[in-house]
Write a structure and sequence with these properties.
It is a single chain. This protein has 284 residues and is of the alpha+beta class. It is built from twelve helices and ten strands. The strands form two sheets. It has a six-stranded antiparallel beta sheet. A hairpin with a 4-residue loop joins β5 and β6. α3 packs antiparallel against α4 and α7 packs across α8. The longest helix has 18 residues.
Length: 284
């Protein structure tokens, strides 16, 4: 896999790669605004899956678990521009552009956003992000304040095209302690560290392990593996999807580990299950 990343600053990057699909589990500390140039991206969240293609612009909210699977497509690399909208920059922006009372009203009107936001095609937003492309070749020759200006421009455009953006971008609350059972049942397919699971449920690692044992009467590692394998089994047996199309979304890092764990759990490898179903379907 050939992977290349260019930066204007640490908060604005252009990434490009060719090769096999690339998967990553994300939990961004900051909102990420993405302009998709070529290829295909699938973003899997607890209750939804979204697919993005050439020209799409979307925002991944901070502190939300997502599996991102990136594919080169139709002979073109996977290529995208990503802009980090950091809490520090947003706090400064809203301090200069909004009265506190008005801002609190905007936040109160918007429920916590958990899904990726897809923006409709808009000339202002498209031109703002497209104008970044020439800057990636300038490197250190680019004046440092240019990047800050472009990020402010993007924030202003988002606010102008979507009235709910103030309620999202100006909300700086951190995750509080929430129901662990409900959260884990909805997010078990995300291959995150236990530290991260603890953080998102408002717990220290020690408290997370203790509460998990009390809720599920087993260890997190064992429970997560079993849940992911059951999900994969359902995808193959009920939806007749191929193992190579299932293992990433089920929370496994590579196909060989998935096949080993699957055989360990069910007594045969995933391809055997799929072959049995295929033969059964062919019978008169």
């Amino acid at each position: 896999m050939e992977f290349e990343t260019k930066y204007i600053t640490a908060d604005i990057k252009l990434s490009e790669f060719n090769g096999k699909p690339f998967k990553t589990e994300v939990l961004f500390e900051h909102h990420i605004l993405v302009w998709f140039i070529s290829g295909e991206t699938k973003i899997v969240q607890a209750e939804t899956t979204a697919v993005f293609n050439t020209g799409d612009i979307f925002l991944i909210p901070r502190n939300q678990l997502a599996t991102v699977i990136m594919y080169p497509k139709d002979g073109h690399p996977h290529k995208a521009v990503a802009m980090h909208l950091t809490k520090e920059r947003l706090k400064d922006f809203f301090a200069r552009h909004n009265a506190p009372g008005k801002l609190q009203q905007a936040i109160g009107k918007v429920p916590p956003l958990k899904k990726v936001v897809r923006f409709p095609k808009h000339p202002l937003l498209e031109s703002c992000l497209a104008s970044l492309i020439p800057y990636f070749d300038l490197g250190e020759n680019l004046p440092p304040d240019i990047a800050a200006i472009k990020i402010e421009e993007a924030i202003s455009i988002l606010r102008s095209i979507d009235e709910k953006m103030d309620g999202l971008l100006a909300n700086f609350e951190e995750p509080g302690k929430i129901n662990l059972t409900d959260f884990m049942e909805r997010h078990y397919m995300f291959n995150m560290t236990l530290d991260r699971f603890g953080y998102l449920t408002g717990r220290s690692l020690a408290t997370f392990r203790r509460d998990f044992k009390k809720a599920f009467n087993t260890t997190p590692q064992k429970w997560l593996t079993e849940k992911r394998l059951k999900l994969a089994y359902h995808q193959i047996a009920e939806l007749q999807r191929k193992p190579i199309d299932v293992y990433l979304e089920a929370g496994f890092e590579n196909l060989s580990h998935f096949s080993f764990a699957f055989k360990n759990q069910f007594g045969y490898p995933p391809n055997t299950l799929l072959n049995k179903l295929t033969v059964s379907d062919k019978k008169p």
